[in-house]
Design brief:
InterPro entries: AAA+_ATPase, ABC_transporter-like_ATP-bd, ABC_transporter-like_CS, P-loop_NTPase. Helix content is 34%, strand content 27%. The chain has 313 residues and is α/β, with parallel strands linked by helices. Strands 6-7-8-3-9-10 form a six-stranded mixed β-sheet, with helices on both faces. The protein has a four-stranded antiparallel β-sheet with strand order 2-1-4-5. The chain has a four-stranded antiparallel β-sheet with strand order 12-13-11-14, with helices on both faces. The radius of gyration is 23 Å and the shape is elongated.
């Protein structure tokens, strides 16, 4: 799958801005970004549901939007909102989708039975979909999205309304699909989910601002993640708030995690900057470098330039 110069404008709003994207076969590619950054808009353009304002898209050899109708048979699409019928049973929902996809009765019967077992829904076949738990609805929606064995599965924040255990089980199911050759594109705003992807694109204001495997992005972080150990982490956070070169401050238990800007990429200089600021505030602390995580990468990649909005400090 490739997109080149992909853009989408809604009046004066540019939701996606000159996006270049390549997703390889059987890859689990993740879109990470805040709400409103263009993830959903991009996915809808890639599967032919939304016309782009500019750019080109090729998916599984099809040119989009020209071949969008032909592509539908080879992709699956799952949204964050449960989109099946609450007043139909689990089995009836899948039977309806099988008819829409053109499966004959024998194919449909075998495939539905297989998916009900795979996604732990066999004992829920006659239960109304509207009475399922969040995790069960999610598994039913996934079963519906892969009923026709798509080559590409697009998932738009599919785990936004389920508990951590259901999320883990869901991701196990996704990796099973990838192992069988299905290409997956998953949008998320959960850091732990983003770390599971084989490759990751970070979107910010419609632009792709980082692209690589999670480990590659963390190794290449152009900044210094630091850990501050002190008796008053809250006071330390207040003292460092607004310090030039400090991109992010996060309290974790009794520690304070600090991300220093790329201009402070020299670790020793970054440590000294933080220590001096804390000494000036009368706070005794130990400051040391720490291992980068994906949240550090996200903060660094989406950092706004000073005065970018015309505001004054």
């Amino acid at each position: 799958m490739q997109a080149r110069g992909l853009s989408k404008r809604f009046g004066d709003l540019t939701a996606v801005d000159s996006l270049n994207l390549t997703v390889r076969r059987a890859e689990v590619f993740g879109f990470l970004g805040p709400n409103g950054c263009g993830k959903s808009t991009t996915i809808r353009m890639l599967c032919g549901l939304l016309l782009p304002s500019a750019g080109s898209i090729e998916v599984l050899g099809y040119q989009i939007p020209r071949d969008a109708e032909a592509l539908k048979r080879r992709i699956g699409y799952m949204t964050q909102k449960f989109s099946l019928y609450d007043d139909l049973s689990v089995g009836e929902n899948l039977e309806f989708l099988a008819a829409v996809q053109g499966l004959d009765r024998q194919q449909a019967r075998q495939r539905i039975a297989e998916l009900l077992e795979r996604y732990w829904l066999a004992d829920r076949r006659r239960q109304l979909a509207g009475t399922l738990s969040g995790g069960q609805k999610q598994r039913l929606a996934l079963a519906g999205a892969v009923l026709h064995k798509p080559d590409l599965l697009l998932l738009d924040e599919p785990t936004s309304a389920v508990d951590p255990q259901s999320r883990r089980e869901f991701w196990d199911s996704l990796f099973e699909l990838a192992d069988s050759g299905t290409t997956l594109l998953v949008s998320t705003h959960y850091m732990d989910e983003a770390e599971r992807c084989t490759r990751l694109g970070i979107l910010d204001q419609g632009r792709l601002v980082a692209d690589g495997s999670p480990s590659e992005l963390m190794v290449a972080l152009p900044g210094s993640p630091l850990l501050v150990e002190c008796a008053q982490p809250r006071q330390a956070q207040q003292a460092l708030q607004g310090t030039p070169g400090v991109l992010a401050l996060t309290q974790i238990g009794n520690s304070l995690r600090v991300l220093a800007a790329p201009v402070q990429a020299n670790d020793a200089a970054a440590v000294e900057l933080i220590q001096q600021r804390l000494r000036n505030a009368g706070i005794q602390a130990q400051v040391a470098t720490t291992t980068a995580n994906l949240e550090d990468v996200f903060v660094s990649a989406t950092q706004r330039p000073p005065h970018s909005s015309g505001e004054h400090p």
